[in-house]
Design brief:
Low-confidence stretches: none
Helix content: 40-55%
Number of helices: 20
Shape: globular
CATH superfamily of the largest domain: Aldolase class I
Radius of gyration: 21 Å
CATH class of the largest domain: Alpha Beta
Length: 472
Amino acid sequence: MYDVKSKVAEEFISHQEILDTLEYAKANKDNKALIDEIIKKAEAMKGISHREAAVLLECDLEEETQRIYQLAKKIKEKFYGNRIVMFAPLYLSNYCVNGCVYCPYHYVNKHIPRKKLTQEQIRREVIALQDMGHKRLALEAGEDPVNNPIEYILESIETIYSVKHRNGSIRRVNVNIAATTVENYRKLKEAGIGTYILFQETYHKENYEKLHPTGPKHNYAYHTEAMDRAMEGGIDDVGLGVLFGLNNYMYDFVGILMHAEHLEASFGVGPHTISVPRIRPADDIDPNSFDGGISDDIFAKIVAILRIAVPYTGIIVSTRESQKSRERVLGLGVSQISGGSRTNVGGYAEAEPEDEDTSQFDVEDKRTLDQVVNWLLSLGHIPSFCTACYREGRTGDRFMSLVKSGQIANCCQPNALMTLKEYLEDYASYDTKIKGEAVIKDELQQISNERVRNITIEKLRLIEQGHRDFRF
């Protein structure tokens, strides 16, 4: 029984509705009239339904696929411009009580070293990240009520925000931890987190339970309903994601859009971000042991159609993907990427010995943050370290209303340029600084509001004199 507003996981993510949608999409994959109608609807840039999106993903007509790519690029440019927000993950602990078969942190793995950062070690990690130039982190930890209780997470967030090193500071901490209670979500909100992120891995209940044979995460309903509890706890910026490679990609593509529709229908605001990770090799994990892998072409098409279906939502691609893969999807809707990432516990301040590897997965894009910033500038993007909306209270429906109206550009464009200027002054290599200054000069002319442009120019001048942290 499908009910988009239901609070029951198996009703707002209805197995039968997904099967019906997949059957409909397959039956209409060559229906050019219908596909043209869906693309025309999408051109209004107000999104399309999960069933319409499934038809586009199933479609293999080359001409229509190119139209999809062009529209995705156009929508991304309208709502997010050429800005790409930068972040890095920070792993606090790999202690975990779950039995997830795709993750080396599963409790059955007895040879991976188990680590948990002390608050002093967290400070050192944060300083190392600040010295790279990062302003936004995604906090990661395994699920272990003894080793990683909510009190440890809250103390760690406080520590992260407290560290001020030279001109560095972490201005936004997003949190990716296990599903928890409304009370704990309230505590996270009070601690000043940005986005609460939780990957579903797969929306197929039977496969989900097989992939999570033991531990709290085995409970499909509790996990799938977590975003409702987060919203009820006051967190209005939430991030969804599935791990492509574990299950049929069409099923999970439809599932994540149904989840987004559920949040919009129930709370008036959809997900702040959607992540699209693909499974990667890790300590005792072989991606080839799963039969749901997807090609680069399918991956690119998924990104493009997500951008069309949920035009206001940020799309994240991490360093799981190669430089080549990331470059391709940057033009199809991606708005956030990580750079200089480490996926091991304590991997920034000091290199980890090879025989003590605590990585959750192998990083494919191993470039430094400066190399990634330089690359983005060369491609015509603006690497942004902005966290202004979160700190100005522009979250949830307030953020989405600004995005939908197009007014967010009056904030985002100048904020992106000012945070890029900070990076160039404090952290950039010579070549990156030259490229960045040229981009700032050109982009200033794209700020149509003369008052905003003049204020931005003045703030850029003050940044050169040593002042920091301006924002609209």
